[in-house]
Amino acid sequence: MGSVQIVTTILAAAITAVAVWLAVRAVAKMTAVIRLGQPAPERFGGKGARATKMLVETAGHTRMLKWSVVGAAHWFVMVGFVVLSLLVLEAYFEVVTPGGGLPIVGHWTIFGLVTEWIGILGLVGIVVLMAIRLRNRPNRPESRSRFTGSTMWQGYFVEWVVLLVLIFGFVIRGFKVATDHFEYPVWATPLSHAVGSVLPDWSAGVSVAALIKIMISMTWLIVISLNVTMGVAWHRFLAFPNIFFKRDPEKPAGSGLGPLRPMTSEGKPLDFEEADPEKDQFGVAQVEQFTWKGLLDFSTCTECGRCQSQCPAWNTGKPLSPKLLVLSLRDHAYAKAPYLLAGGGKDLTGEERGTEEQLAGVDVLAMAEADRPLIGTAEEGGVIDPDVLWSCTTCGACVEQCPVDIEHVDHIVDMRRYQVLIESSFPSEAGVMLRNLENKGNPWGAPQNTREDWTKGLGFEVPRVGEVEDFEYLFWVGCAGAFEDRAKKTTRAVATLLNEAGVSFAILGEGETCSGDPARRIGNEFVFQMLAQQNVETLNEAFEGREKAKRKIVATCPHCFNTLGNEYGQLGGEFEVVHHTQLLAHLVSAGKLTPVQPVDGGVTYHDPCYLGRHNRIFAAPREVLGDSIQGELTEMPRNSERSFCCGAGGARMWMEEKIGKRINVDRVEEAMSTGAKTIAVGCPFCSTMLNDGVNGKGAGEDVEVVDVASVLLRSVKPEAPAGEPETAPAAG
Q1: Which residues have C-beta within 8 Å of that of residue 26, sequence separation ≥ 6?
Q2: Strand order in the sheet with 704-707
Q3: Residues 6+ apart with CB under 8 A from 167
Q4: Would you tell me the crossing angle of helices 85-94 and 152-178 to the nearest 10 degrees?
Q5: Beta bridge mates, 706
Q6: In this predicted model, what pLDDT tens digit does every residue of 668-703 receive, in sequence order?
Q7: Could you tell me which residues are beta bridge partners of residue 38?
Q8: What is the distance, to the nearest Å, from the Cα of residue 593 to the centroid of all Cα atoms in its chain?
Q9: Nearest CA-CA partner of 536 in 561, 579, 511, 568
Q10: Which of 305, 332, 529, 317 is nearest to 408 (CA)?
Q11: Alpha-carbon distance 645 to 634, whole Å?
């Protein structure tokens, strides 16, 4: 060992010791903060499925590759980080001696070949990512960047570190070639040999380059250890547990889609019959009241902005960005952590738990952070502004796009639950809807005895449960389908088609009440459970004696479909629920319905969020429309899992849209840009919103918004207007 190697070895050991010590301290701090969260025992079941899903999502990059070029570049960088960590380890042998290398594998040609090409592709990948970040930098006035609000210096820092580590990996190999210490052939390591051909025969070059590589790597570790909220770096480690502990590892996409997470207190589902607001947690009022998985979510955010780029609120000038919401909660949690870890915190009655002695040494900034309300205006010092909280449509675009499986919608609804149930703080116009749900069983406040009015004049009898001995499907009409004029046309069209196909079905009629979706999404879990328990009891009685496979429900509203099929199981209601487009697609393919008249003028299809993104039903409505028009649909640029919301979800149907551009207008403009004369939908909320948008654009005479069922009915029975009676209403 020469003098150069003695110096490089000492310096490498010193900076590594500092970096490792700081990293251990940082990990301990992050672990302590995450453990402040509430229990989530359900996250530990199905470890095999969780491990499989984690490996598939990380190694396969299944979420990232939806963004082709970015995904591929990131995959090479990720693989480079994992595999080439071995070359960082090898650098510790190289600072000691120019001929040093990893024991055993370091001398295998296959190791040299693999690491060479991973290094080359990693270089290409990181240059591509750097170019994309520069092209989408937030200070460009001509674009609304997904990086707006991200801590840009951290992104640039991480990318330059990766680039320099990869470059110095080849410099080390180049010096080994130049000094004849390299054992790999040219065919396996062409770039290393090319670099070596231009480097001098400097015997100390290997050790010096190895030291620089180690110093770059350890500087990165020191910087991220001093910045525990640096998600752009820490996600490299936290993504694995965050994906492993996702809510439902069996789901093909975001596990936070579909049903909402039940309302819990101390890790157990809340029983409203016995719940006490002074003893049980009602939603989230303090950051530590999120589960530990929620705090892990916040820590894992990469600040990539994919959620933000797809969010309908953000894209129409609302203050909500899913990314910025998560970052605000993350920064607040870590700023408040010293106070919480010292024993501070408020109990459910608002009393301080920490003693003066415990809090005496807490930093004044942490104490100030502890006094901030979780939800509040800027004047109140709130962490999350009310306009941010209430802008969410719960469309799930953020959850769908997040590469590390953050469950934004669950966190937003948890905060809403506290605001509604404890603070009684929510947009005033939604109060009418909630009162109608409690008093009338539907959000419009329509009389219950008019639920069956849509059946009048159909030309055939619509059987009721209890009036017929047997039926294959219970037709869940829903509140919109029973009371809203446009939705009633869909209900009549579906009933007519089922009758035409010879499907035996029955309705609950006045026995049906709201599924509870608007109440649950706005945060009123109490009203949801009241309505849901009533419906579960009614449905269980209607299906008494049947096994689950024969407890079939068909619903025209995706919100009802999602609630009945995915959430009623939480309350003892197990049913096989299909959307009407699924059933109609089956009936057409089985030859029980035959489209005969093509629908002209061009058709485009709008994917409802709760049918498509939340429940992965994309094909069935398109199959029905394809058969009806006997041709190809004209797709909007944003379709299928990237469909743009109509603006009605999350109980936004009953709230005024006062900020920014109206979401439905944005979507209608996109639909009209296709040139299609018919905008087909599969949801009554979407129908209302898009109809309003078309009329607002003054295009009501040229563009029609109709349900998929109505399009099919026009093709199957062209002589009957969709959803209208075939014969005059019967007298009396």
Answers
A1: 224, 225, 226, 228
A2: 603-605, 678-681, 704-707
A3: 123
A4: 50
A5: 680
A6: 999 999 999 999 999 999 999 999 999 999 988 889
A7: 291
A8: 37
A9: 568
A10: 305
A11: 18
Q: What is the pTM of this model?
A: 0.93
- Select from 681, 732, 670 the least CA-distant residue to 710: 681
DSSP secondary structure, 439-500, as one string: HHSSTT---GGGTTGGGTT-SS---BBTTBS--SEEEE-HHHHHH-HHHHHHHHHHHHHHHH
CA 662 – CA 646 distance, rounded (Å): 9
- 396: closest CA among 383, 385, 410, 382? 410
d(CA 427, CA 424): 10
**Which tokens sit at 491?**
């209900």
What would the two tokens of residue 8 be? 């490089």
> From the CB of residue 185, how many other CB atoms can be counted at a distance below 10 Å?
12
pLDDT higher than 50, residue 555:
yes
Q: CA-to-CA distance for 323 and 541, rounded, in angstroms? A: 45
DSSP 99: T
**Bridge pairing between strands 264-265 and 268-269:** antiparallel
Question: CA torsion angle for 102, 103, 109, 111 (degrees, to 10)?
Answer: -50
Q: Which two tokens stand for residue 549?
A: 């496979």
The model's confidence at residue 729, banded by pLDDT at 50, 70 and 90, is very low
Q: Are 496 and 519 in contact (CB under 8 A)?
A: no
Contact indicator for 672, 699 with CB cutoff of 8 Å: yes
* C-alpha 111, offset from chain centre: 39
pLDDT in tens, 190-213: 999 999 999 999 989 999 999 999
Reference 219, options 277, 157, 268; nearest CA is 157
User: What's the token pair of residue 534?
Assistant: 């009533």
For residue 414, the model assigns a pLDDT of 97
* Separation CA 629–CA 608 (nearest Å): 20
At 124, the amino acid letter reads V
Residue 357 burial (CB < 10 Å; 0-12/13-18/19+)? exposed
CB 231, CB 297: distance < 8 Å: no
What are residue 227's phi and psi, to 5 degrees? -130, 80
Contact in structure between 151 and 328 (CB atoms under 8 Å): no
Residue type for 165, please? V
Q: Tokens representing 374?
A: 């979780």
Provide mean pLDDT across the span 13-38. Answer: 97
Nearest to 188 by CA among 209, 173, 202, 203: 173
pLDDT for the residue numbered 525: 95
- HEC assignment per residue over 44-55: HCCHHHHHHHHH
pLDDT digits (tens, 9 = 90+) for 626-660: 988 877 889 999 999 999 999 999 999 999 999 99
- Give kind and range of the element (H or E) at residue 704: strand 704-707
In Å, how far are 285, 338, 373, 423, 535 from 370, measured between CA atoms? 12, 10, 8, 19, 42
Residue 264 contacts residue 38 (beta carbons within 8 Å): yes
Q: CB within 8 A of 140, min separation 6: which ones? A: none
CA angle 609, 648, 618 (to 5 degrees): 15
Please give the biggest Cα pair distance in the chain. Answer: 108
- 26/224 Cα distance (integer angstroms): 8
Q: Measuring CA to CA, which residue among 572, 558, 560, 715 is closest to residue 643?
A: 558
Q: Where are the alpha helices (DSSP H) in 47-108?
A: 47-59, 68-83, 85-94
Residue-averaged pLDDT of the chain: 92
Based on its alpha-carbon atoms, the radius of gyration of the chain, rounded to whole angstroms, reads 30
Distance CA 676, CA 584 (A): 23
CB atoms within 10 A of CB 269: 12
